[in-house]
């Protein structure tokens, strides 16, 4: 009799769990809302940029803006050619990348292919700390340390100059290049390295002819990412590069970048709604389009050069 | 048969772990020598001492001598890259480079300074022919090596090793990741290659050793238990442990 009772209890197992049911319904919605926040923000930013930029171009012809060689929106005779700001930005970015990409890559090769595990475990976090230094600190480092050193070598250098700011922007993006490139190299399977070692390749040949090509897409996208980070860098250039929009490629002169200009106007007393104020949206839009194109380029290059393994 | 490799009192430690214990054996020229034994018995470790791939593993310590044609390959005057050029290796998993079939084969020769296109073409064809892969791939040498099947990839890796013109070919369980038909093809290939190369293979598969090899070495816990002609070892083992292993009592 007792046995039968037990059997009956067993057959009435409940498979319902109200708690997990509700959780499964509610969580996706909550998580979607979190994801939506960033999308909505992006749309908002693009909308503001677009509407203000369109307003600006109603008054200033696009052609004059894109191809004008003089940028003087605040002081008469007024002129709205963005090329001087563009050349300043490019000067800084090129200096930064010419410095940072080879150094960052060398760093990544060392960490991934040569460094003993112990060294890598210590050096990599330290490098990543570099990425966490506030950019304003880098700005003062450029102004008070790097600039005086450059002036010792080239006495004619201005207090504000593109070289110093560019180099320090480079220092800032080195961890980005090295860390992402190193991740890409670490992802290359060990069996590929062994295959090359077994053919009589030296460590350097393995690094250069097997690991770097196999990790190439990751290396390129890290470089492009660093490039667009350098273009958008603001504080260092605002502090150390000066505020002289100039269509010049002399790194020892004071220049102004697009970001530097936006800071200058945002902090000043330019009245809202004026043409002068509209310039920062037009410049911001230009910056946005450039970085967007670069990111698309990075995606394309990463796909185009991907070596499957 | 002439002795090509002469291993004398070899001890190898991974940190404090004693992986090879006083190993002494001789490997004859232009023949197939198989290393058999259960997992962790040291057979792959010994294979990797022959082209010094163990150097890459931190904490490895070695004493004793490994002589190839009379030269101790662990002495200071031996250049490890040149050694590896002479002692090629094929791994357990096919590991072609993420490049074209052609570039995979040409990789080694290019590394060692051959730039001439015509010469490279010759080497590529010859190596692929030796690995009995030429007929299957000759029309799409520019295709990625990953478009090949697992068995073809492994033959490609053999061709790649042959392209630098080695004297010795080490095969570390080269068929254990392959299907039976691909395995058979590689075994046939080994038979053809032994006229020109000294082949040392590690295998998990006793039957493979019996089918393919001329000499067999049985390892247990880092020691050589028995070493003799393959036929002799499988039909009439002298050591009880060898008999227990080949009759399937353990391993």
Automatic annotation (TrEMBL), chain A:
<keyword id="KW-0812">Transmembrane</keyword>
<keyword id="KW-1133">Transmembrane helix</keyword>
<dbReference type="GO" id="GO:0006817">
    <property type="term" value="P:phosphate ion transport"/>
</dbReference>
<feature type="transmembrane region" description="Helical">
    <location>
        <begin position="123"/>
        <end position="143"/>
    </location>
</feature>
<keyword id="KW-0813">Transport</keyword>
<dbReference type="InterPro" id="IPR011864">
    <property type="entry name" value="Phosphate_PstC"/>
</dbReference>
<dbReference type="InterPro" id="IPR035906">
    <property type="entry name" value="MetI-like_sf"/>
</dbReference>
<comment type="function">
    <text>Part of the binding-protein-dependent transport system for phosphate; probably responsible for the translocation of the substrate across the membrane.</text>
</comment>
<feature type="transmembrane region" description="Helical">
    <location>
        <begin position="163"/>
        <end position="185"/>
    </location>
</feature>
<feature type="transmembrane region" description="Helical">
    <location>
        <begin position="82"/>
        <end position="111"/>
    </location>
</feature>
<feature type="domain" description="ABC transmembrane type-1">
    <location>
        <begin position="86"/>
        <end position="298"/>
    </location>
</feature>
<keyword id="KW-0592">Phosphate transport</keyword>
<dbReference type="InterPro" id="IPR000515">
    <property type="entry name" value="MetI-like"/>
</dbReference>
<feature type="transmembrane region" description="Helical">
    <location>
        <begin position="280"/>
        <end position="302"/>
    </location>
</feature>
<comment type="similarity">
    <text>Belongs to the binding-protein-dependent transport system permease family. CysTW subfamily.</text>
</comment>
<feature type="transmembrane region" description="Helical">
    <location>
        <begin position="26"/>
        <end position="50"/>
    </location>
</feature>
<protein>
    <recommendedName>
        <fullName>Phosphate transport system permease protein</fullName>
    </recommendedName>
</protein>
<keyword id="KW-0472">Membrane</keyword>
<feature type="transmembrane region" description="Helical">
    <location>
        <begin position="206"/>
        <end position="227"/>
    </location>
</feature>
<dbReference type="Pfam" id="PF00528">
    <property type="entry name" value="BPD_transp_1"/>
</dbReference>
<dbReference type="GO" id="GO:0005315">
    <property type="term" value="F:phosphate transmembrane transporter activity"/>
</dbReference>
<dbReference type="GO" id="GO:0005886">
    <property type="term" value="C:plasma membrane"/>
</dbReference>
From TrEMBL, chain B:
<keyword id="KW-0547">Nucleotide-binding</keyword>
<protein>
    <submittedName>
        <fullName>Phosphate ABC transporter ATP-binding protein</fullName>
    </submittedName>
</protein>
<comment type="function">
    <text>Part of the ABC transporter complex PstSACB involved in phosphate import. Responsible for energy coupling to the transport system.</text>
</comment>
<keyword id="KW-0813">Transport</keyword>
<dbReference type="GO" id="GO:0016887">
    <property type="term" value="F:ATP hydrolysis activity"/>
</dbReference>
<dbReference type="GO" id="GO:0005524">
    <property type="term" value="F:ATP binding"/>
</dbReference>
<dbReference type="Pfam" id="PF00005">
    <property type="entry name" value="ABC_tran"/>
</dbReference>
<dbReference type="InterPro" id="IPR017871">
    <property type="entry name" value="ABC_transporter-like_CS"/>
</dbReference>
<keyword id="KW-1003">Cell membrane</keyword>
<keyword id="KW-0067">ATP-binding</keyword>
<dbReference type="InterPro" id="IPR027417">
    <property type="entry name" value="P-loop_NTPase"/>
</dbReference>
<keyword id="KW-1278">Translocase</keyword>
<dbReference type="InterPro" id="IPR003593">
    <property type="entry name" value="AAA+_ATPase"/>
</dbReference>
<dbReference type="InterPro" id="IPR003439">
    <property type="entry name" value="ABC_transporter-like_ATP-bd"/>
</dbReference>
<dbReference type="GO" id="GO:0005315">
    <property type="term" value="F:phosphate transmembrane transporter activity"/>
</dbReference>
<dbReference type="GO" id="GO:0005886">
    <property type="term" value="C:plasma membrane"/>
</dbReference>
<dbReference type="GO" id="GO:0035435">
    <property type="term" value="P:phosphate ion transmembrane transport"/>
</dbReference>
<dbReference type="InterPro" id="IPR005670">
    <property type="entry name" value="PstB-like"/>
</dbReference>
<keyword id="KW-0592">Phosphate transport</keyword>
<feature type="domain" description="ABC transporter">
    <location>
        <begin position="5"/>
        <end position="246"/>
    </location>
</feature>
<keyword id="KW-0472">Membrane</keyword>
């Amino acid at each position: 009799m007792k046995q039968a009772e037990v059997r009956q209890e067993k057959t009435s197992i409940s498979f319902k769990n109200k708690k997990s049911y509700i959780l499964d319904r509610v969580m996706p919605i909550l998580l979607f809302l979190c994801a939506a926040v960033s999308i909505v923000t992006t749309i908002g930013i693009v909308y503001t940029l677009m509407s203000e930029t369109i307003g600006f171009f109603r008054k200033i012809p696009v052609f004059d803006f894109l191809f004008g060689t003089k940028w003087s929106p605040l002081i008469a005779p007024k002129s709205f050619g963005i090329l001087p700001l563009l050349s300043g930005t490019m000067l800084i970015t090129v200096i930064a990348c010419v410095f940072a990409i080879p150094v960052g890559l060398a760093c990544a090769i060392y960490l991934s292919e040569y460094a003993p595990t112990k060294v890598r475990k210590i050096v990599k976090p330290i490098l990543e700390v570099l990425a966490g230094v506030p950019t304003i600190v880098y700005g003062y480092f450029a102004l008070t340390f790097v600039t005086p050193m450059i002036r010792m070598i080239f006495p004619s250098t201005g207090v504000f100059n593109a070289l110093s700011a560019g180099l320090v922007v480079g220092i800032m993006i080195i961890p980005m290049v090295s860390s992402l490139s190193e991740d890409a190299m670490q992802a290359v399977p060990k069996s590929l390295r062994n295959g090359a070692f077994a053919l009589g390749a030296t460590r350097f040949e393995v690094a250069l002819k097997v690991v770097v090509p196999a990790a190439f897409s990751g290396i390129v996208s890290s470089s492009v990412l660093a490039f667009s980070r350098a273009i958008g860098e603001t504080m260092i250039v605002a502090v150390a590069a000066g505020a002289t929009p100039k269509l010049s490629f002399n790194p020892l002169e004071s220049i102004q970048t697009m970001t530097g200009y936006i800071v200058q106007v945002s902090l000043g007393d330019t009245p809202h709604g004026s043409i002068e104020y509209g310039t920062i949206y037009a410049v911001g839009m230009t910056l946005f389009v450039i970085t967007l194109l670069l990111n698309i380029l990075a995606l394309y290059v990463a796909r185009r050069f991907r070596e499957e393994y | 048969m002439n002795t090509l490799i002469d291993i004398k009192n070899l001890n190898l430690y991974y940190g404090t772990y004693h992986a090879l214990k006083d190993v002494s054996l001789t490997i004859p020229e232009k023949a197939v020598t198989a290393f058999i034994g259960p997992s962790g018995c040291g057979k792959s470790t010994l294979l990797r001492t022959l082209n010094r791939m163990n150097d890459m593993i931190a904490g490895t310590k070695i004493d004793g001598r490994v002589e190839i044609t009379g030269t101790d390959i662990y002495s200071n005057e031996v250049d490890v890259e040149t050694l590896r050029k002479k002692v090629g290796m094929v791994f357990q998993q096919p590991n072609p480079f993420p490049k074209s079939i052609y570039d995979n084969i040409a990789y080694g020769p290019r590394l060692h300074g051959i730039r001439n296109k015509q010469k490279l073409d010759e080497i590529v064809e010859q190596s692929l022919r030796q690995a009995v892969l030429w007929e299957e791939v000759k029309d799409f040498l520019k295709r990625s090596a990953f478009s090949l099947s697992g068995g073809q990839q492994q033959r490609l890796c053999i061709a790649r090793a042959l392209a630098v013109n080695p004297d010795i070919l080490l095969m570390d369980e080269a068929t254990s990741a392959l299907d039976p038909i691909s395995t058979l093809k590689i075994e046939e290939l080994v038979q053809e290659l032994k006229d020109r190369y000294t082949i040392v293979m590690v295998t998990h598969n006793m039957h493979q050793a019996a089918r393919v090899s001329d000499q067999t070495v049985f390892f247990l816990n880092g020691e050589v238990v028995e070493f003799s002609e393959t036929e002799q070892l499988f039909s009439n083992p002298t050591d009880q442990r060898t008999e227990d292993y080949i009759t399937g009592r353990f391993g």
